[in-house]
Amino acid sequence: MSGSVHELRPRPGDSEKITINLGYVDLGHVDLLVRDGFYANRTDFIRTAIRNQIDRHDEATRRSVARKAVELGLRHFDRADLEAARDAGQPLHIRVLGLATIASDVPPDLARDAIASVEVLGALHASPAVKAALADRIR
C-alpha cells in the first residue's frame, strides 16, 4: 500500500517561504477559484501559477543555465569538498539554480579559503558564520 502514497506537500526543508502582495481584485479571483474547487487553497493556486510560468519559459531557462554554467537542482558542499578545493589551490565558484547547502560542520575560515564566489538563484543554506565569512563573495 505504501507504493501508492504520493507526497502532496514539500517537507519543511524542501521549500522556502515567500510573501507576495496581490491587489484585491486578483485576490478575489483566486478566492473564487478556490471556492469553486479548482484549487485546494490559495497556496495551491500560487504554486500552480508559478509552475505554469516556469514551464512556459522552460526553453529560455535551459539556454540560460547552459550559457551561464549554472548547476540545476540541489547541490551540497561538505567539509571534504571544501578541503579538497582548498588543498588543490582551486577555489570553488558556486553557481546554483535551486538550493545550495554548505554543511554545518564547515568552519568560516575553511569556507573563505575554499570558495571564491557564490551565486545562487533560489536559496543558500549555510550557518550564519559561514554566510558572514562569504558576504563579500555572495551575489
End-to-end gap: 46 Å
Total DSSP E strands: 3
Look at the helices and sheets and give the structural class.
Answer: alpha/beta
The domain count comes to: 2
Q: Any idea what the radius of gyration is?
A: 19 Å
Biggest sheet record: 3 strands, parallel
Helix content: 40-55%
State the order of secondary-structure elements, H for helix, E for strand: HHHEHEHEH
Structure description:
This protein has 139 residues and is an alpha/beta fold. The chain has two domains: 19-56, no CATH class; 60-137, no CATH class. It has helices at 24-35, 42-56, 58-68, 79-88, 108-114, 128-133, and strands spanning 71-77, 92-102, 115-125. A three-stranded parallel beta sheet has the order 1-2-3, with helices on one face. Helix 4 (79-88) crosses helix 5 (108-114). The termini are far apart. This is CopG family transcriptional regulator.
Task: Give the arrangement of secondary structure elements.
Elements: H1 24-35, H2 42-56, H3 58-68, E1 71-77, H4 79-88, E2 92-102, H5 108-114, E3 115-125, H6 128-133
Parallel strand pairs: 1-2, 2-3
Helix pairs in contact: 4-5
Outline of this structure?
The protein has helices spanning 24-35, 42-56, 58-68, 79-88, 108-114, 128-133, and strands at 71-77, 92-102, 115-125.
Question: Top keywords for this entry?
Answer:
139 residues; elongated; 2 domains; 3-stranded parallel sheet; disordered N terminus; alpha/beta
